[in-house]
Amino acid sequence: MVRPFVFFDLGQTLIDEWNYVTYFDKLLFQTLNDYGARIDQRNYYTLRNDLVRNRKFGSSGFLEIISLMVGLILPKGYDSLIFDVLKTDLLENKRKLVKLFSQVNYLIPLLSKKYSLGIISNNSSGSANLLLKYDLDKHFKIVCLAEDIGFKKPDHKIFQKALVDSNSSIDNCIMVGDRLDIDILPANELGMKTIRTLDSLYKIQEPLNRKETPLFTINSLSELPEVLSRIS
After folding, report:
1. Longest CA–CA separation in the chain, Å
2. Paired strand residues for 99
3. What ranges in 113-171 are assigned the alpha helix state H?
4. d(Cα 191, Cα 174) in Å, to the nearest integer?
5. Which cofactor does it need (predicted)?
6. Residues 194 and 174: beta-carbon distance below 8 Å
7. Burial class (CB in 10 A: 0-12, 13-18, 19+), 228
8. Whole-angstrom distance, CA of residue 175 vs CA of residue 5
9. Which stretch of DSSP H or E encloses residue 70?
10. Which residues pair with 177 in a beta bridge?
11. Do 200 and 12 contact (CB within 8 A), yes or no?
12. Cα–Cα distances in Å, from 54 out to 2, 58, 150, 181, 206?
């Protein structure tokens, strides 16, 4: 019997970025006010959540939020200035603040006994190195990172590369990710089964149409084995 192939996103799916999100918000909030924004925390989070909920930024993640937030609050021209001020700090501290979700260390070896595992992610090799650090990389047969492939999710090409490498039929492949717009949508369009994780900043997104609707939604990775047993 051919094993089902389960592909994972990295950031906010296997990798816990909550400490980084907190640091990001604190730094950006303070910097905006340092440059004269005079915005309180309530309005800051209202604006930030609107960007997330309504897909105002694409596949570049948090760094793209900087320019968008500045553009909403400060005069024209401040966006590139503040982006340059914060970029290095955020990239350096992200490496220190992110970690694997607590379930990953036992879950991945467990799943690898029954499923073939892969990665489809826009994250850098630095994030993927967390799997190497904990000797989990050996459980993944395929690792497709945007920086290696040359295409970012939601581009179908990165998914298609992973699917070709898996040598598995599309209906035998499952995508697990946290973002409706760049994980669930393209995977559904290609015919993969989809599972959405909610332990993420992007949990506030709501499906805009049928193609953004996952087959299953889980609150945490601990629910994944039971859900996989129902669809594979």
Report:
1. 63
2. 16
3. 125-133, 146-149, 156-166
4. 9
5. Mg(2+)
6. yes
7. buried
8. 9
9. helix 62-73
10. 196
11. yes
12. 39, 11, 26, 10, 9
